[in-house]
Write a structure and sequence with these properties.
This protein is α/β, with parallel strands linked by helices. Helix content is 47%, strand content 13%. The protein is built from 18 helices and 14 strands. The chain has helices at residues 10-22, 33-43, 59-69, 84-92, 105-135, 145-157, 174-183, 205-210, 227-230, 246-258, 284-289, 295-301, 318-333, 342-350, 356-370, 402-423, 428-435, 439-448; strands spanning 2-6, 26-30, 47-51, 74-79, 97-100, 164-167, 192-196, 235-239, 260-261, 270-271, 275-280, 304-307, 339-340, 375-376. The chain has a 5-stranded parallel beta sheet with strand order 2-1-3-4-5, sandwiched between helices.
Length: 451
């Protein structure tokens, strides 16, 4: 353990040094504040014993400078001019403790020992927090090569302030990836605000992003902070960025360039420090060619790109995801499903999952509700997953075969509905869930086929 002693009195330095060396500590001594600041960087001490009264600057002034570059540095202030107010200022400035001269040798050694115990506990706590961040990604589940590559990219970009563009099909978990970037970043204790750009009406986009002043328009009864201010010092996740109207794109670009926003009705801009993570399932380059997305904004957003694979590209993750969803919905729905049969799992693995992870989650949830026992079996899965003809999806066919195939599909559809109704004692809710259609659609089909 390395200890730096900073004191302008040579006798005090020598006494402290001998005491600490006898205890097995590695000691370095300096005689003023400037030398203490330089030695802190060169010697990298575990603990600094810092005299309050030195020729060039006070101990508290030195403490402030050291803490600005070494925030975790453990410091004990030592002074012959002790007072309660000085002790309070030292602790507020980040000192671990405060010792008065003349000091008792045993008390000095005990304080140093406690300081090292504190440093050890702080290090363990920091390591534990880091581990919690690493493994507390919520619904992020997977161990496939493709998924490990995604998480590797997350870990690389998270500590930086770079803007991130997350690409992938609907349902792959783009927001979960964005939250993982935030969790592993220095902004993790600050807000994470998610905005779905495709779900906000055109007339409200500006007020949702940038806010408005009281009285800015008829319904503005009070000042409203937009998403940028809400996420200040944190992360703003702009989902479905490809749907953002061109007018809003211009204003977003200006914010990214100037780092300030202006509320509707405000006279002065507000400075914001926000990390942007954007996501889309669109081809933004194609949107640029169509004149629907600004090329300069694309350049601003596309600093670091994370491509999230579809579920069909990482099918080896499906068993882990299924186990995760069973645990999740046992808690949420008060169920006690324990497992899934091998045959049912094979059906899930072999299905293509056009809706990706979100689609799988819905299927598992539905199967858990339908399972009478504690084990999900093939019968509990949606019809489409079990491999029945996809009578509820569009079929592309040659014109000459259209009527023939339609007749076959109608007959199969009727038989499937009738069979499923019987299985669930004509309970329409359970039947609709099993067929993966709404109750209204089921009712219309029953009416159509006279069921």
């Amino acid at each position: 353990m390395r200890i730096l002693i900073a004191d302008d009195e040579a006798k005090i330095r020598k006494v402290m040094s001998l005491l600490l060396k006898d205890e097995g500590y590695e000691v370095r001594m300096v005689e003023n504040g400037s030398a203490a600041i330089a030695a802190a960087e060169q010697f990298d001490p575990d603990l600094i014993l810092l005299d309050q009264q030195m020729p060039d600057m006070t101990g508290i002034e030195v403490l402030e400078k050291i803490k600005s570059t070494r925030p975790d540095q453990v410091v004990i202030i030592v002074t012959a001019h002790g007072s309660i107010s000085l002790a309070v200022n030292a602790i507020k400035g980040g000192a671990y403790d405060f010792i008065e001269k003349p000091f008792d040798n045993d008390k000095l050694l005990l304080t140093v020992q406690r300081a090292f115990e504190y440093k050890k506990l702080s290090g363990e706590l920091h390591h534990l927090k880091k581990q919690i961040k690493e493994y507390s990604f919520g619904q992020i589940v997977g161990n496939s090569d493709k998924w490990r590559h995604v998480m590797s990219q997350v870990r690389k970009v998270a500590p930086t302030s770079a803007t991130v563009l997350v690409l992938g099909e609907s349902g792959v978990g783009k927001e979960l990836v964005a939250r993982a970037v935030h969790q592993l970043s220095p902004r993790s204790e600050k807000p994470f605000v998610a905005v779905n750009c495709g779900a906000i009406p055109l007339t409200l986009i500006e007020s949702e992003l940038f806010g408005y002043e009281k009285g800015a328009f008829t319904d503005a009864k009070k000042t409203h902070e937009g998403a940028f201010e809400q996420s200040n010092h944190g992360t703003l996740f702009l989902d479905e960025i490809g749907e953002l109207p061109l007018d809003a794109q211009v204003k977003l670009l200006r914010v990214l360039e100037e780092r300030e926003i202006k509320r509707i009705g405000a006279n002065k801009p507000v400075t914001v420090d926000v990390r942007i993570i954007a996501a889309t399932n669109r081809n933004l380059e194609e949107r640029v060619r169509q004149g629907l997305f600004r090329l300069d904004l694309l350049y601003r957003l596309n600093i670091f790109t994370i491509q999230v694979p579809s579920l069909r590209e990482r099918k080896e993750d499906i068993p882990r995801l299924v186990d995760h969803f069973i645990l999740k919905y046992n808690k949420i729905l008060g169920l006690s499903v324990e497992s899934i049969t091998k045959q049912a799992m094979e059906k899930l693995i072999n299905y293509e999952w056009p809706g990706n992870v979100r689609d799988l989650e819905n299927a598992v949830q539905s199967a858990m509700i339908l399972a009478q026992q504690k084990i999900i079996d093939t019968d509990h899965l949606p019809m489409r997953v079990k491999g029945y003809p996809s009578t509820f999806e569009t079929i592309i066919m040659d014109e000459g075969e259209t009527n023939k195939i339609k007749d076959v599909n109608a007959r199969i559809e009727k038989e499937l509905i009738e069979e499923t109704l019987k299985k669930y004692d004509y309970n329409r809710t359970l039947t609709a869930d099993a067929l993966n259609i709404s109750r209204k659609t089921l009712f219309n089909k029953m009416k159509k086929y006279g069921l």
